[in-house]
Amino acid sequence: MMDADTASAALGIELTELGEGRAVCRMTVTDQMINGHDLCHGGYVFLLADTAFACACNSHGPVTVAAGAEITFVSPAHAGDVLEAEAAERTRYGRSGIYDITVRGAAGRVVAEFRGRSRELRQVEG
Questions:
Q1: Taking the model in full, what pTM does it have?
Q2: DSSP state, 9?
Q3: Which tens digit of pLDDT belongs to each residue from 63-77?
Q4: Which end of the chain is more exposed for a tag (fewer CB within 10 A), N or C?
């Protein structure tokens, strides 16, 4: 999946760890990701967390997409910061799942908490 993810690749997001129901992704905040307050735009933090979420929920094999997600921003990130998003599966039942993703900066400082809800796609015969 990550090999075909041109959006994440264009932002320099790399998958550093992958296991069943878990993933870790890393991204360096560039000058192009900075908003008018001289902080990393929240959309980029969301995208990093969403990428880790996608890797974790697709680690089981079937094609799985987001059914919904929410994020809480805890502390700011700045240009040059290396952010790491760690995704962990909380539960899977049938075709649905819940995943928690923590985005951290230097020294483990929490930047954001993200919760994603996944849904496995049904394979259409025909």
A1: 0.94
A2: H
A3: 999 999 999 999 999
A4: C
